[in-house]
Amino acid sequence: MKVALFVFFLLFISYYNSYSQLSVQKFRHIEESKNLSESELKNQCDKLDFSKLLNHTDNSVIYGFIGNDYQRIRIKFIAISKNPSSPELYDVYGKSMVKNNIDEFHGTIKISKILKLKVIKHGCENGYLFKGMKGEYSILGDYTFSENKSQTHSGVFKGNFRSDYFINKHNNIQYDDIENCSDGYTNNQFIGEWKSYDGNTIKKCNWGDFRIPNSGNLDIGAGEFSPDDKYLAFGWQSRRDYSIQTSPKYKQAKKIEEAKWWL
């Protein structure tokens, strides 16, 4: 009996440490940025609608992983609407795909902070296109997306996010793609975990536009996202083939990468 209790204690400690590490990884990356001011501008939630920012990017360049083997996951927000009663809340309907398994989810995105960037970026060759803008901003908050319990391998996505935008010369909000020609450019970063409904499985799960935050050694690309060879078998082979137009597998990869799999 004592041996069994000791083994159970060790398993509990291992599980607790693993869960704690996931919690740490999802908060640290999003909150820390030397370029963010300390001025809180959350009152902008009342007058602005950020739903289009979160659903701006073509799904073919939204990349994500789930688990320690960096298994590819694809996330699609199908509908996002501002909650009329709580301006900091956005109701979300979407779908996730891992391998050939597609699950739908419903949930919320909650804005906790809006911070202005201290130093405005000026873009690359086409920097003049952003002339007259009034400032750049970052939205910080958290999300919870619950998959349908009747679906296969279902659970809950939970974590933190950051989305960047700017106010253009016409005083309209615009998705911040000022430096989309720069190496490492990304936006709409989601960092967190997926937890099965039975509580037995917890996996880190991150995704983002053009790049994945906290992706370890998965992404070896310089100018753009490129998966390491050792992870190609975990859903990334078509992405590799899609990046090489001379590859005999390019046409098939193009169909896979550009498919509207959520319809």
Oligomer: single chain
The stretches of 5 or more residues where confidence is low (pLDDT under 50) are: 2-29
Give the H and E element order.
Answer: HEHEEEEEEEEEEHH
- Roughly what percent helix? 10-25%
Strand-residue proportion: 35-45%
Summed over residues and divided by their number, the pLDDT gives a mean of 85
Give the count of structural domains. 1
**Broad shape:** globular
For the report, how would you describe the main beta sheet? 11 strands, antiparallel
* Cα-atom radius of gyration: 20 Å
Give the helix/strand class: alpha+beta
Number of helices: 4
Number of strands: 11
Distance between the first and last residues' Cα: 54 Å
Task: Describe the structure concisely.
The protein is built from four helices and eleven strands. The chain is an alpha+beta fold and 263 residues long.
What features would you describe in this structure?
This protein is an alpha+beta fold and 263 residues long. The chain has one domain. The chain is built from 4 helices and 11 strands; from the N terminus they run H-E-H-E-E-E-E-E-E-E-E-E-E-H-H. It has helices spanning 2-31, 51-54, 237-242, 250-258, and strands spanning 36-40, 62-66, 71-72, 74-82, 89-98, 101-117, 135-147, 155-167, 173-175, 187-196, 202-209. Strands 1, 2, 3, 4, 5, 6, 7, 8, 9, 10 and 11 form an 11-stranded antiparallel beta sheet that branches. It is globular and about 45 Å long. It starts with a helix and ends in a 5-residue tail after the last helix. Residues 2-29 have low confidence and may be disordered.
